[in-house]
Amino acid sequence: MNNSLPPERTALYRLFDADGRLLYIGISNNPEYRFNQHRRDKPWWPLVARNEVTWFDSLPDAAAAEKVAIKAESPAHNHSENSVKVTRTSPLRGRTGYRQIADDLRRAILDGHFAPGAKLPSHHELMRDYDVAASTVRQALGVLKTENLITTRQGAGSLVRDLDGNRTIAVAIDQPREAAALLAKYMAPGHLAELAEALAELVRQRR
User: Fold this and answer.
1) Residue 53 sits in a domain of what CATH number?
2) In Å, how far are 119, 135, 176, 183, 193 from 201, measured between CA atoms?
3) pLDDT in tens, 84-128
4) Which of 70, 176, 204, 205 sits in a 20 to 30 Å window from 152, CA-based?
């Protein structure tokens, strides 16, 4: 009997301006939520006049299609980091460290591929895609749970938390470089600059 949950359906979306110019290609399991994110943080969003959405059976399928589409169609606002993002969200076999799995999933969450309440790939899927043991997957998910990115429910798996409603993360006070890297993944550039100024001022006050 197979008790594994089905893979998360994922959409490939295209955004166009009024003249039909392709502005952006992306993937998400909740396109409307992703569009709202773009509306808040993309300066080109006011140009968007229409969208096209195509659904795939799983995140890896959508990610592979996104990679091909970006290369073939050259959207105006997809930059070089998009191809890196696809690599991170399409697990490569042989990368067995739990930190790498956690990094991939974290970036997929923060990039909006999983909306609040969405289910992450199951333990079985992660074990298969990364060719790792169950203990490695548990460690990776434990990292995300410690960072308040996910929660777990019996019978439901690992679910993404509402990042807009939850603005707290945990950082290690004895690992400043790792703490800084983690904050940089969550905070907007302007907020990072404010944090840097505040920390510099505190350091000056302690001298």
Assistant:
1) 3.40.1440.10
2) 42, 43, 17, 18, 12
3) 332 344 444 444 588 888 888 887 887 777 777 788 888 888 888
4) 176
Determine the pLDDT at residue 139: 93
Terminal alpha carbon distance of the chain: 65
51 strand-pairing partners:
15
What pLDDT, on the 0 to 100 scale, is given for residue 47?
93
163 occurs within a structural domain: no
pLDDT value of position 89: 42
pTM score of the predicted model? 0.49
List Cβ neighbours of 174 (8 Å cut-off, separation of 6 or more).
none
Domain encompassing residue 31 = 1-90
Task: Determine, yes or no, domain membership for 19.
Answer: yes
Which residues are CB-neighbours of 60 under 8 A, at least 6 positions away?
90, 91, 129
Low-confidence ranges of the chain (pLDDT < 50): 1-5, 80-95
Let me know if residue 23 belongs to a domain. Answer: yes
Domain count across the chain: 1
In a domain, 160, yes or no: no
